[in-house]
Amino acid sequence: MKITKASLALTAALALSLTACAANEGTKTTASTGGLSGTLAGKGSSAMSAAQKQWITDFQTKNTGVTVNYSPDGSGAGRDGFTSGAVAFGASDRPFNDSEMGVGKFAKCAADSNALNLPVYISPIAVVFNVTGVDKLNLDAATTAGIFSGAIKTWNDPKIVALNPGVTLPAANITAVHRSDDSGTTDNFTDWLNANAATVWTNAHSGTWPAAYAGEAAKGTAGVVDTVTKGQNTIGYVDDSAAAKLGKASIKVGDAFVQPTAEGAAKMVDASAQVAGRAANDLAFKLSRTTAGTYPLALVSYALVCQQYKAASDATLVKAYIGYIASADGQASAAKSALAAPLSSALQAKVKTAVDSIK
Question: Which pLDDT belongs to residue 27?
């Protein structure tokens, strides 16, 4: 069944904070953890903004004594905020790497506790464009890498023309828009470029934009959408849920050009392996970017939580909220509100086991 895109209004500086009294207007779900009370704070991925807004509404509808505050400040801010103890959970479009993990590194966790990386949101990344006279655009990884590295400077460059027979491309300069903040979307985008066009995109994947590559910088998902929309002959990359009315390029995978879809993103995760050497309930993935039949330009967003919290109240609220968003109800809600791909039943079961283990 085709999912209808929800209307989104993302604001880079605005934290998503829904109070319990407003939650009665939310979507009804069958999950309930009634009897809870308190305030739960999280921050991180702006790609998850639409999903988090809906999840908070859903959760507070069933738990009127709870206020959940989520600030979509970017994945780097989510990892930093969770590590410092500013929030009880972080949200990041990449997991903590091995050097960032470790017992005793996380302020809200017990002294002998490590963090857990729990996948809760799978979504395609759209390469969005606003080009005069162009409604459809085909791109492969090498050409995209050339555009965003600055090697390809005009829309009628022969490499773009060759991928778009019959399309009249303007002799106009390209404005390539990237994230100014430490971004999980950037990390996933550059990982795709590096995996498929390493001779063009020579930098390792990273959440921060390479200083050698210029372009125009914008803060957060909303900032990129706004800059691409208001500019001329622009191109950028955003979570598919935020693409709004912008054109979305078809990406070459194997011999076919494909549009971003939740189904393709889910298949990418199915083709991926978990990061080796992690604890049993840590579910970090090393994503496969080259498998035919998938949409490899996609991201997995993680809830960053403690194995054991110092405060039992934090553990109770984190278990309830993260348990909801990873549940069948929560995943279905994100699919409707943000075009996310629901976790597979097998992965959902693993996340439930991990959430249940939180103390």
Answer: 30
Q: Which architecture characterizes domain 125-264 according to CATH?
A: 3-Layer(aba) Sandwich (3.40)
Q: Is the pLDDT of residue 16 over 50?
A: no
Kindly indicate the confidence band of residue 244, based on its pLDDT and cuts at 50, 70 and 90.
confident
3-state DSSP of the chain: CCCCCCCCCCCCCCCEEECCCHHHHCCCCCCCCCCCCEEEEEEECCCCHHHHHHHHHHHHHHCCCEEEEEECCCHHHHHHHHHHCCCCEEEECCCCCCCCCCCCCCCCECCCCCEEEEEEEEEEEEEEEECCCCCCCEECHHHHHHHHHCCCCECCCHHHHHHCCCCCCCCCECEEEEECCCCHHHHHHHHHHHHHCCCCCCCCCCCCCCCCCCCEEECHHHHHHHHHHHCCCEEEEEEHHHCCCCEECEEEECCEEECCCHHHHHHHHHCCEECCCCCCCCCCEECCCCCCCCCCCEEEEEEEEECCECCHHHHHHHHHHHHHHCCHHHHHHHHHHHCCECCCHHHHHHHHHHHHCCC
Structure confidence at residue 26 as a pLDDT band (50, 70, 90): very low
- What residue ranges do the domains of the chain occupy? 16-123+299-356, 125-264
